[in-house]
Amino acid sequence: MAENPWSLGRALRGMFVKPTIDETTWDDLEAALITADFGPDITERIVEELREKVDRFRTTDPRDLKRMLVETLEEHFAKFDRTLKLTERPAVVLVVGVNGVGKTTTIGKFAKFLQRYGRSVVVGAADTFRAAAVDQLATWAERGGAAIVRPQQEGQDPASVAYQTIEYANRTGTEIVLVDTAGRLHTKGGLMDELSKIRRVIEKQAPISEVLLVLDATTGQNGVMQAQAFLEHAGVTGLVITKLDGSAKGGFVLAVQERTGIPVKLLGQGEGIGDLTGFTPHVFAASLVE
Ligand SMILES: Nc1nc2c(ncn2[C@@H]2O[C@H](COP(=O)(O)OP(=O)(O)OP(=O)(O)O)[C@@H](O)[C@H]2O)c(=O)[nH]1
């Protein structure tokens, strides 16, 4: 398996080639997990669980520890239900998050991802305040093979764009609706009111299947703080972690799940249209440790 930038491989390599597990093994493991942004609590729990397993199986072989580490990480990653619930027709997905985390890019990639499964997609440009943002979304929608419903004028009520997008889906039989929303932080109250209004207006026509919060892995725990208002008020059902390719912080995926109690459903690992994948715990755990 190719080594990912967020892999622990390099940090752990020295540990697994030693002849036997010793105290420095545990120190090295702890340091590697902390560096990968697992956070102190989860790091402590994982090290503790591994010490118990190593004792229980009476092994001193670092290769056993490596296998146990993969298993333990997988168990932790898999604690949450990461299935995307997209069975409604249309299935409406609201995409939320602060500016610059990769929302627009993610919507394009997600459209492409859904298209590969044979789904038709329309994108609603409900971030109506910057014409440039709408154009950028249109470019990504086109790349992703999705239709787009744009605001008819700059600054149009975002809720009305969401409404028109669902109307479009109903009229054309489009299966999935992805609604882009604004991420401005300076008017948090206003932003949350806007989101509630979008939700209310959408729910008059169709239930909302998923609310996906996009988080940038390179901002780490700080990014979660920034997104707190969305977590508290937006009814988030899943997380999308972007920019994992530019980060050594694979542990953030687990830290953020445990901290928010919300499953990671998609991973963004590059700037290309094909760089979005589902989150598969055994693959992710294995890639982390390889
Ligand atoms: N390396 C990398 N870059 C990414 C990824 N996702 C997004 N980006 C980059 O992050 C930058 C911001 O992405 P956008 O999609 O414009 O972010 P946004 O949240 O829509 O930003 P606003 O429209 O300003 O709210 C762009 O330069 C993207 O190419 C990713 O998974 N990996």
UniProtKB/TrEMBL annotation:
EC number(s) on file: 3.6.5.4
Places the protein is found: Cell membrane; Cytoplasm
Keyword check for Cell membrane: yes
EC primary class: hydrolase
Record-annotated AAA+ ATPase domain positions: 89-266
Principal subcellular localization: membrane
Binding site for GTP: 97-104, 180-184, 242-245
UniProt KW keywords: Cell membrane, Cytoplasm, GTP-binding, Hydrolase, Membrane, Nucleotide-binding, Receptor
GO molecular function, one term: signal recognition particle binding
Domain SRP54-type proteins GTP-binding: 90-290
Catalytic activity: GTP + H2O = GDP + phosphate + H(+)
Signal recognition particle SRP54 helical bundle domain location: 1-77
Topology in membrane: Peripheral membrane protein
GO biological process: SRP-dependent cotranslational protein targeting to membrane
GO CC terms of this entry: cytoplasm; plasma membrane
Keyword Cytoplasm set for record: yes
Family according to the record: Belongs to the GTP-binding SRP family. FtsY subfamily.
Function recorded in the entry: Involved in targeting and insertion of nascent membrane proteins into the cytoplasmic membrane. Acts as a receptor for the complex formed by the signal recognition particle (SRP) and the ribosome-nascent chain (RNC).
Subunit structure: Part of the signal recognition particle protein translocation system, which is composed of SRP and FtsY.
Protein's name in the database: Signal recognition particle receptor FtsY
Organism, as annotated: Microbacterium immunditiarum
